[in-house]
Amino acid sequence: MRILKYCLVLACMAVMSATGAEARRFAVSTNLAGYANLGTLNAELAYSFARRWTVNAGVKYNPWTFRASGRQFQNRQQSYSAGARFWPWHVYSGWWIAGKLQYQEYNTGGIISRRTEEGDRAGAGLTAGYTYMLHPNLNIEFGIGLWAGVKWYVEYACPACGLTLSSGRKGFILPNDLLISISYVF
């Protein structure tokens, strides 16, 4: 967690010291598909420091636990990421590819089966997508990505019983981003 905070601070310092007269533009976006993931709140800030490059910092937060028909389910998380995007044409327009470092604290389960898993994940991800300009200051983004890394976890038999099935550390590869984002560029 501390390493990610230091990386975010270093990225912000690099962004603020970058040179280039017309390439400096910020964007704030939110992923609408993220809200369909049991109400996961999310935001991302991007800074263009060159004609084809942006640095990004994002956060996702989901504190909700749901109960229905005697069952409990959740996809609770707090997730922090920092990365960069390469735009072959211009920033905030057209195709792009991105890489990022990400940390996530999570508690998920009860959705498909009664099993619940909680823990921490840290890793790197790759995402690709397309940004369509709706207006000079308003964009819609579409994208998909994967991330891989290490997770430290505990798996329980059900969300409320506390019966531990397994625990430890192991690698993972997961889908990370399904983007349908609205972005405001200023």
Describe it.
With 186 residues, the chain is mainly β. Helices cover 11% and strands 67% of the residues. A hairpin with a 7-residue loop joins strand 5 and strand 6. The longest helix has 16 residues.
Mean pLDDT: 89
Beta-strand content estimate: over 45%
Number of helices: 2
Which blocks of ≥5 consecutive residues have pLDDT under 50? 17-23
The shape is elongated
Strands across the major sheet, in which order?
1-2-3-5-6-7-8-9
SS class: mainly beta
The share of residues in helices is: 10-25%
Largest sheet: 8 strands, antiparallel, barrel
The count of β-strands is 9
Q: How are helices and strands ordered from N to C?
A: HEHEEEEEEEE
What value does the Rg take, in angstroms? 18 Å
Distance between the termini: 30 Å
List its salient traits:
186 residues; mainly beta; 2 helices; elongated
Short synopsis of the structure:
The protein contains 2 helices and 9 strands.
Topology readout:
Elements: H1 2-17, E1 25-31, H2 32-35, E2 41-50, E3 53-62, E4 65-68, E5 71-86, E6 94-109, E7 116-135, E8 138-156, E9 164-185
Antiparallel strand pairs: 1-2, 1-9, 2-3, 3-5, 4-5, 5-6, 6-7, 7-8, 8-9
